[in-house]
Amino acid sequence: MDTLEPGDPTTLAEDLASRFAAEHGRQATGVxxxxxxxxxxxxxxxxxxxxxxxxxxxxxxxxxxxxxDDDTVTVSSRQEDDGFSGRxxxxxxxxxxxxxxxxxxxxxxxxxxxxxxxxxxxxxxxRVPLGAGLSSSAALECAVALGAxxxxxxxxxxxxxxxxxxxxxxxESEVAGAPTGGLDQTIALFGQAEAALxxxxxxxxxxxxxxxxxxxxxxLLVVDTRASxxxxxxxxxxxxxxxxxxxAELGVELLRDVPAADQAGALAGLADEQVxxxxxxxxxxxxxxxxxxxQLEAGDFEALGRTFLASHASLRDDYEVSCEExxxxxxxxxxxxxxxxxxxxxxxxxxxxxxxxxxxVDAVGGAVTAAYAERGWxxxxxxxxxxxxxxxxxx
Length: 395
Ligand code: GLA
Fold this sequence. Notes:
4-stranded antiparallel β-sheet
């Protein structure tokens, strides 16, 4: 099977530190890492104050960082030819474009939030597949944020981490132009190995939920459709705008605030049919997260598989953020023995996840690859996802 290796964090950090020293002629102050993620369930509900259940991946982004004695910020990446160089005071939504928006944009957003940051050199390496819906953007933002925080010599308690989540969200929304909802940055900065994170996006409280499908001889297979996926091209923002319009019409701040008993009436009262379907997804998806957590805690993976499928159907039909490649991945995986499958992340391409008996992983991966070949599509990327650690300093 074509697997994407996360690599060994210590080795990757050492390698990046020596490249940094070779390029900049001095040692990095430190190397910082933040993970990609899969969201097990709870999709397109974060910006509605809902519940999500993401899990950090061992695939992570690395940032080597050192202060400069002038006020210049430079960022470079082992994966990209172009980089960025600009003065601290000039950083802003209009002066940073392309991938550096997610790196230099964070330095801008942290300064906006009152952080005293020096000029700095930042060098990036990443093992999170890019554009695969596995949150390479948040991994980049959060690795840079940790590095910048270290240069300001601030210790990372939960409150500081929450502030960094907000700065990263601001960079993504205002500099990169993707008005995303905080799920990805929160799991990157608060995730822990061997657990999924139940995240309540109304008050941003979190609870670790054991995630150990291997104990039931199951694996989580990630299928990267390699279909184009961008959260800054309008589809994501328009879904979010529909939700905000509906909340205003219903007289609540967030769709989560509509009590269960009032939801049927609220749906019936919405004038626009499309908006009604969007809201129905949000209401039902939040309930599915609660169900999924109970199913996980009871070890009932068969039921969890069915919940995954219901989530996918809702995202496909009501929220309309799936695509043919995702639907084929889900249907084929289930046809080949998966207990359940669904798209994960923002959609419009990106990745699907499937809950698969360990001894059927190769068969399911093979079936999906064959289904793609039959349609003349490029082969999907496949990986089995084990829970990884959250963002941290490596050296
Ligand atoms: C993207 C966004 C998140 C979230 C998901 C959908 O990953 O970055 O904030 O909205 O889509 O659940």
